[in-house]
Description:
The protein is of the alpha/beta class and 521 residues long.
Amino acid sequence: MKILDKEQIYEADRQTLSAEQIPSEVLMERAASLVFDWLHQRLQGAPVNIHVFCGIGNNGGDGLVVARHLVEHGYRIQVYVVKYSENRSDDFLLNLERLKERKIRPEYLDGNSDLPQVGPTDLIVDAVFGIGLNRPPDPWVSNLFEHLNNSGAFILGIDMASGLYMDKVPENARPVLRSDHLLTFGAPKLVFFLPQTGEHVRQFEVLDIGLDKAFMDGLDTAYELLLPAEMKLLYRPRKKFSHKGTYGHVLILGGSHGKIGAVGLGARAALLSGAGLVTACVPECGYVPLQAQLPEIMVWTTPGQREHTEFPEQTEGHTIAVGMGLGTSQKTQHAFLSWLSNQNDPLLLDADALNILSMHPDAVEAIPPGSILTPHPGELRRLIGPWKDDFEKLQKAQELVNTLKCILLIKGAHTLILSGNKTYVNSSGNPGMATAGSGDVLSGLITGLLAQGYPPVEAAILGVFLHGRAGDLMAYETGQEALTATGILNGISAAFMELAGGGDISRPSDALPRGPVKRRE
């Protein structure tokens, strides 16, 4: 699913109006009616106090349309107009008159108004600011938002959480009216997926408002959201007359004293991905643990007892992941950098391989083009330097991708996969996956897909999605707090079966329930 920037959204609206030969008020009515339908389907006329907060632009016009439909269906509502400016959009004024025709008189709020009384069992509809916001709200508006955030009421956002910008991080968190659930129009927005801004949107749904299909199909966007249906198209079923040699040979190169488990997790993930053969290359101390733990794999050892002091010279024919549990001793650094300088085929570089490279910035030039880098946030910071916000982080990460001609993962709640000039945003996973060893499983999974012949960007995309989906499936069984890296491994099989079987692999929804509304804490 394409993620549009602000100008692309405006252009999509213009193209739709032109193609259908309709005025903007008709598109507003269509979009806001879908919001009402969503809400009415869940409330079914329940006696909930609904507070609709409207700005004076087109987002406010959406809110007025929703309010009008709520009134016509017998709901108990109060409408507020937040007067942050004297510049009112034409569609806002038109729908304000239509609302007044239904004998509904909004309460106007400005810097001198008392704060509205909203209780924890009430419902707030947020239609104050939309995608056009480009400056901080006035202090009194920020005070209003803070008051509503603290009310305990369930907050339903329309298109954007008021106070969020499309293209930058708010100066501080206070001005944002957080959404428990957000109904956004036409396409998701990048800010829903970034840590500093996404925290203000607990859940979101995209409403199809009928934007011009020809325009949307031809639109090239810098960001795309990965959805389950697209993952099914990437999946390659196994062939009947295949054998283990058909599916490649993975080499997991890493481990040091006390960190052999990282290699074990990566190796098992590679096996579960479908790789035909898996070899782990570890120092002497890792031989017995891995042979006992994973009878399906082969184990090589290098001369060091507790750490790698040399790397294997003959690795042709292997798809290599390097770095898990490797350590960063001087001997290991020297061995790794010497080995890397002789590599020509793409690698997967993780963990301490990336940490060593951050200690030797000039050595990054030796990374073979097409390699996949999988840093966690701390490793990423060491690679690209500090950033002031998530947008600068993306800019610096893109510069690294352009320089190295590599694929870069930015791991997080919505892992980003940067390849060329495109960034893919993952939709699977849950907070329970923030646990030791989760990244080792991801690296092994991606490497196993690479060994089977998936192109690097497809291996990264599918590996990230399957990793998250496996975590989701196991979290439903164990709870997020009890999820471990081994638990994620146990979910990989079921995640693959969903892809192969064509079942529904979307997440269960915990959106607004029917009946009385209570905000989740």
